[in-house]
Each structure stands twice: as C-alpha cells, then as structure tokens.
Task: structure prediction
Amino acid sequence: MEKKLIFFDLPYWKDLYVRHNLDVMHIEKNVCESLIGTLLIILGKTKDGEKTRLDMVEMGIRESLKPITESGRQTFLPPACYVLSRSEKRQFCSTLSEIKVPMGYSSNVRNLVQMKDLRLINLKSHDCHTLMQQLLPVAIRGLLPKQVRMVIVRLCYFFNAICSKVIDPIKIDELQEEVVVTLCLLEKYFPPAFFDVMVHLIVHLPCEIKLCGPVWLRWMYPMERYMKILKGYVRNRNRPKGCIIECYIAEEAVEFCSEYLESTPTIGIPKSLESRQNVRMGFKVTPVEYKMLCEDHFYVLQNTPEVDCYRLEHLTRGEKWLQAEHRRCFIRWVRQRIETELAKPEHCITQTLRWLANEPRRDVIRYSGYGINRYTFHTREHDLRSTTQNSGVTVEGESLHISSAKDKNPVYANMSYYRVIEDIWELNYTSFKVAVFRCKWVNNKTGVKVDENGFTLVDLNKEGDSSDQFIMASQAKQVFYVSNPNDRRWSVVLTSKPKLYDSGDVCNNIEETPSFSQRLPECEDDQNEDVSYVRKDCEGEYIEVDNSKMNKRKKFTS
Result:
C-alpha cells in the first residue's frame, strides 16, 4: 500500500499553487558538483563511467561510446564530447588557481584546486554559487567542443539571471523557454545518468519565481549563516545544546541591557566597516608635481555639480573651442570668474565654489587602500603582495568624439573605461577633502572588445590617453580581471559585487552577483547536423577489470 503524506489531509492543501519550496542554493550546488565532476572525471562525483556507457548501449543510443574490453584485463572508455582531455584539465585548473578575486567576494579559489590530481576539492555551497555565477564560463573558454561549451555557458547564465534581486515578470517567460532549450541541449550531449532529480528541478524554477517572488527571499543562505553562528556557541562538544542555549540567552541579555544604556554602542560590526565609507589604509603625505595636481583639480571641477554652469559657459565660447584648449585654461578661467562674482554685492557663490576656485594644497595624502561605496579598493602595488585583487576599476564617462581635426561638431557619448588603480590621493581643499584614483586607462579603440558570447575583454598593456588619469573615488565601480585561457594578452572583465553587512534584516543581507556576459549566448545547434559524441582530439580512459567480481558475476548468471 502506498504511503500518503498527512499534508494531503489539510483542507487547504489542494488549493496551494506551490506545495514545495525548491531551494536554489542546494540545486545550484548539486548541479555544479555533477557538472564539474563529469568534466574532470572526479571519482565519486562524475556521472560518466562504465555503467553509464553500458546503459546507453542497452538504450540503443550513442553506440560510438560503447566500452571496449581489451585482453580481458582493461576496459577502454572512448573520450566523450563532455569530458576534458588531460591538457584541458590542466588549463582549467590552472585558470582557476591563478584567479584573484576582490576582498569578500568568495573564499580563496586557489585553495579549492588540486593541481596534482587535476580536480576541485572541498567545494562549499557558496563556492559552487561563485563558480556557476561567473567563474566557470570563463574557465572553460576555448575548452570542449563549441556546442557543449555553449550549453554550459547558457546554464550558468540562467542561474545568474534567476538569482537577481529584481526580475522583470515579462522576462520570466523568456527564461522558462530558454531553460527548456538548454536542458534539451544538455540531454543531447550529456549522458542520461547526468539527469537526476536536481537537474530536473531546474525547469520548475521560473514558474516558482513567478508565484513566490525572487529567489533570494527564499533560499537557505541566511539560515546557513545563522547556523554557523550557533555552532560557534559550542564550547563543550558533549553538551552542544546546552552551550547554544547558554550563549544565546547571554547575548540576548546583553543586547537588551545595552538598549537602556545611553551613548553606548551595541554589539555588532563597527560603523566604519559596516558602511565601507572612507576606510583608509596606508597613510602617507607627499608633495606632487604642479602639472599633475592641475590635472587632478581639473577633473574635480569637471565632475562637481556646482561647477556645471561654468563648464558649459566655458565650452560654448566658440565653435572651434576644442577639448584641449578647455583643459588648458579652464582652471584659471573659473578662478577669475568666481572672483568676479564675489566682487558683486549680491552673489550666489557657495563655500564649496570658493574653495574649489582656490585649488587644493600641494601636499596630498596617499593611501594604499580606500573603502567607499561598500567597495574596498587597493593600489596595484598592494595587490601584487596580496592574495586578493582590489585594484580593478571601471567608470562610465562622457567622452568627446571627433571625426577629424577639422570637425566643427564634436559628439559626446558615454563609454565604459577599464584599468587598475596606480595611486590613491586625497586632495585637501581646506574645508573639505576629495578622494581621487589615479589610473592608466585602457585604449577603448584597440584594447577593449566584446566577443561573440558577450564577454568583455581588455588588453591591459594598451594604454589610452595619458592626460586624463584621474577619477573621483565616489564614481568608481570595482571589477576584477581573469586571464583569458585562449590568449593571455587579453583578460576577461568580471564585475565585483559591493560588500553588504547585516543591518538587522537578514533577508536584505544578500549580495547580487552581476552577469558575466552582456547577453545570453545564442544557440547555434543545427537539428540536421550529425553530432560527434566521441572526441578525436582527446585521450580515452582505461579501467582495470576486477577478476574477482567478474567470476562472481559469471557464477551468479550461470
């Protein structure tokens, strides 16, 4: 007799649209482990093997992958299209081991890679999340046949899309259609043993999002983090429950009493670290050249809202007024213009404009690290000695475009610029200070490109205009660069995520991982194309035959 769950006895159970909450955290982790285990042929994790091949033979599919017994001692497994060769495994593991991620992005990826056995070890839930969201599509660039690689990239793009904090309801139906196509392509190339219940549950995720809302409101990461806090309360392993209860009550009592103590901060993360605002590291005061200081001051004037009216007035003095002339004399012109306004009895010059017109002090404060906008930035020199990468920066700026030297109608357009931070300065305008980053930007014409899969690639050796090196720290967004496995000259740009701290609301303490690609990779699968399930550029695998098991099997069958 089949057992019936007691939930079906509830009067409202039949009216529920969603009877089970699918946890994306565990689905993503299990799919990631199966995928990486199959690619790298990790013992105990791979979905490929002799039994899998025999199942396909019994099903009458992919006869070319049939195991071949040689001399009665070894079984040869032909190389399938979904496994990596030894050289590709080495490249895959080497790419991951060389990755430096920003502070707080994830655990040290280098510790997850075992180069001796060419496999990944000790993968936690968040490690799998990081791999599926950004790192795995970069690590397999140039590896595997193109069709198989595109399917894996599409699967990673789907997980990245459903984990967004904001999802357009119209795009949910598009995601549903795309994930069905992706799973069909996976089924076309990967073995049937790969498709366990976790892979099947992927197809139900878009529908559940439509009914229950975004994934980050329902997944298990907040609970897992709180479980780590509770496990930290255990001091006596023989009495874990008593330790948790005692520490929990003590912490609650201290928090309750601190609410009644005036001018006493409560227990928690310091305010400076919680906001990541103006956290300074490596203090040093040094004088700088006046020419470089003028370049820095010019950029501050260009990007201060209170100076916009003067900037526009200065730029519209004539049709042939070019950007170089504006850069050369705008600082002096603004100072004279402000002085003229101050001479009038009634003026509207603010204190900020007064100090900006007087220029900053010659001695600037230099830092090796600076925290702002919930990012932690370091200089390139600091990153060379560190296991993290916090010097990558991008900014969207307005650039002047001219067709030739005789062009009288220049056009302004927004462009994204990439580079690493060379120096961090803090300009002193007496009544206030402005933090700026000095960077050498990549040439956008020859050093930046977007490939067919939507990845942004930069060549850090091709520098752009050296006269425009500074940006304000408040404008910077953090990125990090991963060396392109196909061509080491180019690096793949991955956007970092701002570090969020618990502000009392556990649900909002979720970090959103930006997409690794600007668009979903197109599916170029041809229905009439003959799929080659065996790789000709890859070595196969030999499995030793256990004679004792074979004898037992023969005895049992007879």
